Amino acid sequence: MKKIDKSKPVLVTGATGYVAGWLVKRLLEDGITVHAAIRDPEKEHKVHHLNGIASNSTGKIKYFKSDLLDEGSYADAMRGCELVFHTASPFTSEYEDPQKDLIEPAVKGTANVLEQANKTPSVKRVVLTSSCAAIYTDAIEVKETPEGKLTEDIWNTTASLDYQPYSYSKTLAEKKAWEIQKDQDQWDLVTINPSLVMGPPLNPNATTSESFSLLKQLGDGTFKMGAPKLGIGLVDVRDVAEAHFQAGFTSSAKGRYITSGHNTNFVELGEALEPKYGDSYPVPTKALPKWILLLIGPYVNKNLSRKFIRNNVNVEWKADNSKIKNDLNIEFRPIQETMEDSFQVLIDNKII
């Protein structure tokens, strides 16, 4: 039970990120001083949106140059902080070497930040951005769970360097965090495990994340023949930021938190956009037959292997989000609001 003093600065790693931006906004609006640890604080276009928020808030923002792979590079940023939000981690399917591009930055980065917490006497709590990917690899695994849904007790055991290395990197990074946490008693650890995150970015120039390439495909005609009925969880970026905030400042918060608003699939995402955008954009409202995907998937996208299609298409995804609702009072926005707000940003910025 750690009570965090809001008059002390709070560290956010990877502060220019998609989720981190909304978290920084929430902290600043609460009058908190944010220590923003990022790779390139001198690049104005990277921090412009955060400066804008800070100038309209009661909180203050200070930038620190830090790199996930440089040991000790978070020392200055962490000094005097009781609360650390570690959100920085690679999220991409564009990698050459999964070990070097995904696993090492995720695991080493987590170790660097948490070992720095061990050396910083002021730190009382670390909130780590993990993922539902640390709980499962494929939707088909849901059927094998004790209650027919994913819960916080379950760990991913099926991802590997060769199959879904992103999920593997999130699993190893979170395991590393719990390992480091167990060896000390100065600070406690809370993890936020979101499903697929959607919602409007605060920095529209940064719409390069995986979420946005999917969103773009829902509007640019990629799926005009139909979308793969891929079972997923979906959560709004603003709800994920609120979950981090509550995990940081709720003394009784503990353990892992599945942060997912909806058990859904790609076709339902298209259907959510249809009423408002269906007349102007080719949003999909029907499912592409699985046999067609098995035939063409691997040629269209290297991540659509036949194994992945078999294990996720036309397979229901289900997770239990009752713990975060009960412990942190999180309420999730409706899918339609999330999808419309996200899609509108792509239109306003002429990305589609």
UniProtKB/TrEMBL annotation:
Family matches, as SUPFAM superfamilies: NAD(P)-binding Rossmann-fold domains (SSF51735)
InterPro entries on file: Epimerase_deHydtase (IPR001509), NAD(P)-bd_dom_sf (IPR036291), NAD(P)_dehydrat-like (IPR050425)
Annotated keywords: Oxidoreductase
Claim: Mitochondrion is one of the keywords in the record: no
GO molecular function terms listed in the Swiss-Prot or TrEMBL record: oxidoreductase activity, acting on the CH-OH group of donors, NAD or NADP as acceptor
Residues annotated as domain NAD-dependent epimerase/dehydratase: 10-247
Pfam families: Epimerase
Protein name: NAD-dependent epimerase/dehydratase family protein
Organism field: Christiangramia lutea
Lineage: Bacteria, Pseudomonadati, Bacteroidota, Flavobacteriia, Flavobacteriales
